[in-house]
Amino acid sequence: MFESLSERLSGVFDKLTKQGALSETDVSTALREVRLALLDADVALPVARQFIDSVREKATGQAVLKSVTPGQMVVKIVHDELVRTLAGDGADQGLRIDSPPATILMVGLQGSGKTTTTGKLAKRLHEREGKRVLMASLDTRRPAAMEQLAVLGRQIGVDTLPIMPGQDAVAIAKRAKQQASFGGYDVVMLDTAGRMHVDDALMVEVEAVRDASKPNETLLVVDSLTGQDAVNVAENFHGRVGVTGVVLTRMDGDGRGGAALSMRAVTGRPIKFIGTGEKLDGLEEFFPDRVAGRILGMGDIVSLVEKAQEQIEAAEAERMMKRFQKGRFDMNDLQSQLEQMLKLGGMQGVMGMMPGMAKAQKQMEEAGFDDRAIKRQIAVIQSMTKEERRKPDLMQASRKRRVAAGSGMEVQDVNRLLKMHRQMADMMKKMGKMGKKGLMRGGLGALLGGKGGMPPGMAAGAPPSPPPGLPGMGGGLPMNLSGLGKKP
């Protein structure tokens, strides 16, 4: 997400930070390019204009122009303004569901992803916050809409209101509230039918549902790919229903991100969650400061660590840590790390959260280093026998040919994987001697490229050759995919 905007802005700020002193002309030229980048990213014109005016006011003062690092000061001002634009006052960022049974009303256009988002949010509340959730579909128009929500409920282990044919949306909402009260539920989620904001009859219906259910939260689900029109939708829904928050879906497919930047400024309503994929765990809480960091290429290490803690089991992490401390690292361990990386969002997901890796990420994508490369590495390991996985030193010429044929790869691909394993094994042995703290600190340092903050092979315009791993997060995140990129 935000790839296009991030790329444009990084080019602008690279020029600024490389200069020594800055003149007001330099700042004005840079801000003109920032304005064009914002408009190209589908940011609403009034928002872009207000953003640039606010930054210019702060960036053309004598304190900036005469500071030791004026270029970096301008970048900081832009970052702070991005956070302010995305967050507003920040007072109403979280969900207000303290008084059970709290009601969450889901509204939005047809096809925006309301039902899937309802399931994702219910799963999040149930698993992370321990809430007892009841979901109810109020969509009496779309065929099998109620059955779809019931299927999602079974998948995530959340109850759904039994279907009673013939009831209208208001009657279903009242029945859901009653069931939630009698059943001791913490949260009841009402999934309404999709409706156009210009369809007065349907908007009157959702207003009646709101009046009958008195929701704690009214969340507008908007497809971010609709660009500036998403802001118009939000304005209209907020005017009729009174939206308390926004959920932007398909953010993983939106390289521009203009809707996210415009939404808060235009509607005054916070973005509370963003959808990042079709899987039911593809829902992230929206943190304005972290998103601003991603846009400016500063990364989001906090979110990466949080995601790792969610995806990686503590018992498995402890087991791997003990193996590393004993200097043990075989092909099974390497496969485990590769699979963990896929769980964390793959190459793109991990590198997008790492500081200073935006350019490296693009270079690697152009070179063909993607999640398919990781899956091919796993295929090579799975083509080995159990003995070969435990003892990679057994891999001689005939065995390499057999494994290559079994995985659909070439012998040189097997050699590259074995070389990567040896490098990682050596690193694990060194860090294992330093104890648990050494593994944690050393692993993170390796991932971020040591003191310089850049991974090996990335200095001076060299082709990307990412570091071996992040042992502190359940045994490591292997990143060296050299040679397994372009493959049919």
Task: Name its key features.
488 residues; alpha/beta; Four Helix Bundle (Hemerythrin (Met), subunit A); Rossmann fold; 434 Repressor (Amino-terminal Domain); 3 domains; eight-stranded mixed sheet; disordered C terminus
Structure description:
With 488 residues, the chain is α/β, with parallel strands linked by helices. It folds into 3 domains: 3-87, Four Helix Bundle (Hemerythrin (Met), subunit A) (Up-down Bundle); 102-295, Rossmann fold; 301-461, 434 Repressor (Amino-terminal Domain) (Orthogonal Bundle), CATH 1.10.260. Helices cover 56% and strands 8% of the residues. The chain is built from 22 helices and 8 strands. The protein has helices at 3-18, 24-40, 45-59, 62-65, 70-87, 114-128, 145-156, 169-183, 200-213, 228-241, 258-267, 288-295, 301-311, 314-325, 331-343, 346-351, 358-367, 371-382, 386-390, 397-407, 411-432, 435-448, and strands at residues 102-108, 133-137, 159-160, 187-191, 217-223, 245-249, 271-275, 283-285. β7 (271-275) and β8 (283-285) form a beta hairpin. The longest helix is centred in the C-terminal third of the chain and has 22 residues, at 411-432. Mean pLDDT is 75; it is low at 436-488.
